[in-house]
Design goal:
The complex is a heterodimer of chains A (250) and B (392). With 250 residues, chain A is of the alpha/beta class. Chain A contains eleven helices and five strands; from the N terminus they run H-H-H-E-H-H-E-H-E-H-H-E-H-E-H-H. Chain A has a single domain, classed as SGNH hydrolase (Rossmann fold). Chain B is mainly α and 392 residues long. Classes of the chains: A alpha/beta (250), B mainly alpha (392).
């Protein structure tokens, strides 16, 4: 929260490239999703006019209902990438299941990578670990291991942190796990998609009402759509930018 | 202070700076505990490595030694230990009371909130399905809801305090070395206490005892021995340099784009800054703050007795009550945000109103204690040597 004023300052003075194709709601948070590291393996794949992405995640990477899969952010990511990268064969596969900790996901990661052979692993985690109060060291080590496995299998990594959930904020201590993800991302020089602060900004500015108690899916779908779009921007920018530090060359 | 001996509480008069900074720490803890609170950007955790918890634990150790050290000298080990354990019991009861309020809040949210976006997050309420296990684990201090970690830590620190105080009064250096060794062993062997449903205590007692014992050691004459060092220009300079360094690093957390200016070896050396195990970087940050405070706020500063600081001081003097009230008020504040409005103005009002309530209640307790001591109460005035005003 703390970060609100700072974020606003960043928003006002950041002066980042705007993507006019996205709805205004999404663009509000654009400056928070500018990558700070490159994705060289994605860049190589794009040069060959193909891009395969594996989304590994837990419950907050999916939406309920019959059209849930179509509207959740992995599918929106694929759509946004296809739009932004004409002529590139974009393929997004998912392994998403609720209630999974980072350790559990790392266990199945080698299989997933072997099956999908992705150029990029988008890894959403942290919430379940925070809910179960998993030992933060164990969590960090799992992140570490997962990133190393992905790199050794030839995939870049983008981490996605928890959702901002104002109603349950006093019940789930996310901050330790969010900080750990930031640090591990920094150490491995992989981009972190800061979903928490993106959604927080939306909530603070009133873009989306994240407090509302509703069974309706409309806001949830819009949120996922924007996340998919912003994630696509991050991936493309991180792949194409020449100025960013190169990562994962270890 | 002429009668001071090496291993006795330094003076009979309570150091008002302790109450002042403990009161301020309690306010900061309250502000930090309200999720999404704009006002919490003023709290120290945003500008360095340590936060109000370090201040609270250190000063609690200091005042515990001040109050119970005197009792142990005058009435012996058994009586003083009994008093410490009584205090621990009071804190346990307070913790259980807060837990009841927390469960009420959680149950309300579980019944009233539904949003497909947060299907995963709502899983945190699942423990309501088997309250038998949860409540039992909570009574055993293994299940501790968010922001309710400090009191269990305090309880354990007090349970361990009588033998430590005994040692501190006889061989302060050995006591401090024992405490530091425990801290080191904790890092070597990953000692912590298991929690429920998984993981370990968020405030590792094996780690945080160091700050508590160090506070006690300072109270029993250590601060006097250190004063030559603490007042040296070199130490003050180093403290300032370290605080600036911590400030710069902290800024890279809020402006991730600045992170690339942190040299890799620095990042690898300092991260992660471990709050659970009281990272050395956090201790150093707290010590730097303490050095600066001692250097610039003299003990006999007349403003300490002025009206300006009275609200914080009175809160610091009744820390257990104020702390519990703060936890309750932070629940209530979050409730206001979710049920009414979370506009910045509401956040400011809730924050200041909360602090005002804490001050009012602390003042009321203060008045009540005085009335009781004057003989108006149901019990005869308690003879508590060294118990000037306020609690341990």
């Amino acid at each position: 929260m703390t970060r609100r004023l700072l974020l606003l300052a960043l928003l006002l003075f950041g002066g980042m490239p705007a993507n006019a194709e996205h709805p205004a709601e999404c663009r509000v948070a654009e400056n928070l999703t500018v990558p700070n590291f490159r994705l060289p393996r994605v860049a190589k794949a794009l040069a060959e006019k193909r891009l395969t992405i594996l989304v590994l995640g837990a419950g907050s990477s999916q939406l309920p209902g019959s059209s849930g899969t179509r509207n959740a952010y992995p599918a929106r990511l694929q759509q946004a990438l296809a739009q932004r990268l004409p002529g590139v064969d974009v393929k997004v596969t998912t392994d998403v299941k609720s209630r999974r900790t980072a350790v559990e996901m790392v266990k199945i990661l080698p299989n997933d990578l072997g099956a999908a052979k992705p150029d990029l692993l988008v890894w959403q985690t942290g919430t379940v670990d925070a809910m179960l109060a998993v030992d933060p060291d164990v969590f960090s080590q799992a992140l570490d291991k997962g990133i190393n496995i992905a790199h050794s299998e030839g995939a870049d990594v983008v981490l996605i942190n928890s959702q901002y959930s104002p109603r349950t904020e006093s019940m789930i201590a996310l901050s330790t796990y969010g900080d750990d993800m930031r640090w591990v991302a920094l150490q491995h020089e992989v981009p972190l998609f800061d979903r928490f602060n993106v959604m927080k900004l939306w909530s603070d500015l009133g873009t989306f009402d994240l407090y509302s108690a509703t069974k309706k899916l409309d806001i949830a779908e819009q949120v996922h759509d924007c996340i998919g779009r912003l994630l696509a921007d991050l991936v493309v920018t991180a792949a194409k930018s020449q100025e960013l530090p190169t990562n994962g060359s270890r | 202070m002429k009668e001071m001996r090496n291993m006795a509480p330094v003076s009979t008069e309570r150091d008002l700076r302790l109450d002042l900074f403990r009161g301020l720490a309690l306010w900061l803890i309250f502000l930090d505990h309200i999720p999404s609170n704009a006002v919490s950007w003023i709290t120290i955790r945003n500008y360095g490595f340590s936060d109000a918890t370090e201040i609270f634990v250190f000063i609690s150790g200091y005042t515990a030694a001040f109050v119970y050290g005197r009792a142990m000298q005058q009435h012996g080990f058994v009586v003083a230990s009994a008093r410490v354990l009584k205090r621990a019991w009071q804190i346990y009861v307070a913790h259980v009371f807060l837990l009841a309020i927390y469960l009420a809040e959680i149950a309300y949210v579980a019944n009233s909130f539904d949003n497909p976006l947060y299907a995963e997050e709502m899983g945190v309420l699942d423990f309501l399905r088997n309250p038998d296990v949860t409540i039992l684990q909570a009574l055993l201090l293994k299940f501790k809801p968010v922001n309710m970690d400090v009191l269990p830590l305090y309880i354990l620190l007090l349970l361990w305090f009588p033998p430590m105080l005994w040692l501190l009064l006889r061989a302060p250096s050995i006591a401090l070395i024992t405490s530091a060794s425990l801290y080191a062993l904790m890092w070597m062997f990953d000692w912590n206490i298991p929690a429920y449903p998984s993981g370990t205590w968020a405030f590792n007692p094996f780690a945080w005892q160091l700050l508590f014992v160090f506070g006690a050691w300072c109270a029993l004459g250590g601060a006097q021995n250190l004063s030559r060092w603490v007042n040296s220009k070199l130490i003050i300079g180093l403290a300032i340099v370290y605080l600036v360094f911590a400030f710069c690093i902290t800024m890279t957390w809020y402006f991730p784009h600045l992170a690339i200016y942190v040299p890799k070896f620095v990042g690898e050396a300092i991260y992660p800054i471990d709050k659970t195990n009281l990272d050395v970087l956090r201790i150093m940050h707290f010590l730097s703050l303490a050095v600066i405070t001692v250097a610039f706020v003299p003990r006999d500063w007349s403003a300490l007795k002025s009206r300006v600081f009275w609200p914080a001081i009175v809160c610091g003097q009744h820390s257990l009550e104020t702390f519990c009230l703060g936890v309750f008020l932070s629940f209530a504040g979050h409730f206001v945000f979710t049920e009414m409005s979370n506009g910045v103005i509401i956040q400011v009002i809730v924050s200041f109103l909360g602090i005002a309530i804490m001050v009012a209640v602390a003042a009321l307790i203060s008045w009540y204690r005085q009335a009781e001591r004057r003989g108006g109460g149901p019990r005869p005035p308690a003879a508590k040597p060294g118990y000037a005003e306020g609690d341990a």
